[in-house]
Structures are given as C-alpha cells and as structure tokens.
Amino acid sequence: MATDKLTPVILRIAEALERLSPHRPESPSLQGADGFVWHANGELLEPVPEISRVSLELLLGVDHVRNLLLENTHRFAQGLPANNTLLWGARGMGKSSLVKAVHAAVNAQTPGALALIEIHREEIDSLPKLMALLRGTARQCLLFCDDLSFDSADTSYKSLKAVLEGGIEGRPHNVLFYATSNRRHLMPREMVENERSTAINPSEAVEEKVSLSDRFGLWLGFHACSQQDYLDMIAGYVAHFGLTAPESEWRPEAIEWAATRGSRSGRVAWQYIQHLAGRLGHRLV
Fold first, then answer.
1. How many domains does the chain have?
2. pLDDT tens digit sequence for 225-263
3. Which of 82, 115, 131, 263 is 20 to 30 A from 278 in CA distance terms?
C-alpha cells in the first residue's frame, strides 16, 4: 500500500485507540475552598463551603496531644517534613474535632496554606488514585479519614500500607494523612489474637496485622476524661457562647446528664450544652 494511502488508516487506528483508552483526569486546582470531600466513583473533589468545626481553644483536656498535632501540622504547612498521624482512643473525646480545629488554626495564621480533604472509610481503597491526582498540585493537602478501622474480611488495609510508606513513588511531598480510630492498631483485638493462636508462624501473622499502625509516625492517644475535665469543658462552652445559666444550676444538671449516659466525654459535654442552650432559647453561633 502506498504511503499516502496508509497514513489515513494509521491515523484512524490511533484515534480509535485513544477513544478506547481510559480518561486520565487532570490534577485539581483546589482553589476556592479550604475543605473538600473525595468521591471515588466520579473521581471528584467536591468543595465544602463551610467546614463544621469548633474553635481550638474550646477543646479542653487534650492539651498535650493538641500541641503535638498543631506543631506537626504547622511544619507540614511550611513544606517541612511531618508525620502521618493516627488519633486513637476513647470515643467522643474530640479526635476528629481536633483535626478540623488544627486545620483552621494553621490556615488562620497562613490563609490558604492547607487544603483539608476528607476520604470516607468505604473509599479507602481509592486512596492511591487520589494521591496520584494530588501529586501534581501546588497546594499542601491534608487527607483526613474519620473512624478508620478494618475487620477480618477487609483487605483494603494492605493498599493503605503501601500508600502511606511504600511503593516506588512513595507518598507525595505535598500530602499528609491523618486518621482517627477507636482502635490503636486499627484491627479488632480478637482478630489479632486469632491470628496469634491459629497461624503456623504466629509472630509473622501478628506483624502483618499491626504493621499498618506503624506506618503512622505520630500516635496520639485520647483517654476518658475525669469529672473535673468534663465540667471544665462545659464551663468553657458556657463562657464562649454567653449562656446565662449560673454554675449552681448547670453543674448538678451536667453531672446527672453524664450519669444517665454512663460516660463523660467532650461529645457528652457538647450534647448537654445544646440541651442547655435550647432550654434558654439561646442560639449556638
């Protein structure tokens, strides 16, 4: 076949192959918002106009872990080395609230320094794809997964291990991963113990399960608060929102409120404040 006749055929084949090839999405601009939610199905980062959070100064009883997370996040915002962080421990003690509050505090000092990107637990296996998209962006990106944990039938933790600290490409320099969990090793205790009792090489099996949490360079533990810490949290909310109830009124009520729920935590304190503010006809803004 003559060259002039062969060229159109080759062009048509090339165009057909290009149409069949998967679309490679462009790197997102991450402009116009400080918060985004990752949707894996559409490979979309949806902007969040206003992030739901509380002020950093209202998170009481967690001073040590607050300072550590704030320092780590400041370094990352400045382009300096920082660690992936696992916030683990007692429920309702402000793990996710602290992440969002620290993000706000850092951006208040350096506007637009950090983009907070939430990835849902169910979409954690799409994390490699998200990191590939963010690799080409100019903005520092803080990935956040709330209530991260795995059960015995879930193998997506293996892909998370590779993304955090592994693989040929490694973690992008402009991406950091923060996760919260009630479990220190992200696996149920019985799952680790079953591996130890049934495996041919128990130590190897257990190492495989607990090595995921080792990929987080910074572990921040949250523990159940004392009654005084709980009351201090409520006093802080009362003062911040200007609630008119005297301490002699709200203090016994708050103690009874915690007793009926069988626990004391930042979440229980906030729930009582909503009850108190609603009764007083006061808006929490």
1. 2
2. 999 999 999 999 999 999 999 999 999 999 999 999 998
3. 263
